[in-house]
Amino acid sequence: GPTNPTFVSILLTSKLHKGSTELPVILTRVINNLEQHKNEFFEEHGEKGIEAEKKVIVLLTKLRDELQADKPLTSLNDSLPDTTLWNQCLEYHQKSSDGPPSWFQSPWLYTECYMYRRIHEALAQNQPR
Q1: pLDDT one-digit tens code per residue, 75-124
Q2: What residues does each domain of the chain span?
Q3: 121 to each of 2, 9, 55, 83, how far by Cα in Å?
Q4: Which of 14, 27, 47, 93 could share a disulfide with 101, CB 3.0–4.6 Å?
Q5: Which Gene3D superfamilies match (predicted)?
Q6: What is the pLDDT of residues 54-76, one digit of tens each?
Q7: Domain spanning 5-125 has what CATH number?
């Protein structure tokens, strides 16, 4: 990676500030989109669809709260094929930083991708059955 501290600072700082406002907006849009399509979940899956949708909304709202409060990033808890790789990457960041990696104290690209992966986790764990 780039080793010039000034370059790294400029690269990360500009996006981190932007990301601190953009990422919660993206999560809010995802949550609102789920709420707007509640009838479709019901039509396709019945009550189980509505329950799954509610669980996903709760998880995504919690994720948005974690992000806005700059909470530490947490390990993934699903059984998707890339879970181990994501958790290894998080462990690497934990070992190479001064404290636990958090939303605004971590590389912006990592946290942005991590957010989308957490959205995927919420959806994967709450399929209507």
Answers
A1: 999 999 999 999 999 998 888 877 788 998 888 888 999 999 999 999 99
A2: 5-125
A3: 31, 31, 12, 9
A4: 93
A5: 1.20.930.60
A6: 999 999 999 999 999 999 999 99
A7: 1.20.930.60
